[in-house]
Write a structure and sequence with these properties.
With 118 residues, this protein is of the alpha+beta class. The protein has helices spanning 9-16, 18-35, 59-74, 93-109; strands at 2-6, 41-44, 49-53, 82-86, 115-116.
Length: 118
């Protein structure tokens, strides 16, 4: 399970407009979809947050997926980064989401453009 969030998305919208921001969101979703497996599920979780469900995937394997997304974004015509939190612990889906979300906030608090999985 991973939660990813575009860094400084509000600033993107405020600087370039909401239509531009929508294009960045579409680009981010496309980059995620281009990397994940067919068995993975990607859902928009909030404004600029996405959940990536990766069944039978360790945190370390999830990290590889998110690093591939970072590489795909480098080829984008848009200039943006994202932060992410990864979890494979938890007895329930809600617990796993909470752990991944806490790690996402840790990544944001440590300067953004980071992925936290431990």
């Amino acid at each position: 399970m991973a939660i990813v969030d575009i860094d400084f998305f509000k600033k993107i919208n405020d600087t370039f407009g909401h239509q531009y921001g929508d294009e960045v969101l579409k680009d981010f979703a496309q980059k995620i979809k281009s990397v994940v497996r067919k068995s993975d599920i990607v859902v928009r979780y909030g404004g600029e947050e996405f959940l990536i469900f990766m069944p039978n995937t360790s945190k370390e394997e999830g990290l590889i997926v998110l690093l591939k997304i970072k590489e795909a974004i480098k080829k984008s015509k848009f200039n943006y980064t994202f932060s992410g939190g990864i979890a494979d612990e938890g007895e329930t889906l809600a617990e796993m989401i909470k752990i991944a979300d806490n790690r996402l906030y840790e990544a944001k608090n440590k300067g953004r453009n980071k992925i936290i999985f431990k």
